[in-house]
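Lab manual, section 2.4: Encoding a predicted structure.

Procedure: take the sequence of the chain (150 residues), apply the prediction step described in section 2.3, and record the output as structure tokens. A sample record is shown.
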Amino acid sequence: MLTDHHQHARRDAILAILGSGIVRRQAELTQLLKKRGFAVTQSSVSRDLRELGVLKASGRYLPPAPEIAHAQGNFGSLSQFVRSARPAGTSLMVLRTSTGSAQSVAVALDKAEWPEVVGTISGDDTIFIATADARAQRRLLARLREHFRL
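Recorded output:
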């Protein structure tokens, strides 16, 4: 079993690799990590990318802004990818993003642990955000508008 130290070192290496050059595929990133001495699989790299909040846009992986990586609630670097937020019914919010960025935005929302959010499901350019009720949905919409300048 990997220790937190090994996982942290591997994730630091991922961020360093992404910051130093263009990476277009997970298999490519896996090979670069192996060259640095990390025993990784493509599934572990996929999980790391998701949990780090790495964005894939224009066919390449982009490292998250530091505030997203540390989940401090500052969504400034991701706001450029969020297009709209619309309520659907009384307990569902539909957030539209640019193509390929929904997963990164959803990870950031999950890490923020907003009390209005029961859970998220993301696709390629759409995120469904479940809320407990209409009141929580209204609070969430106000928060989304504030953080993403909608």
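Check your result against the sample. Helices lie at 4-20, 26-35, 42-52, 66-69, 102-112, 134-148.
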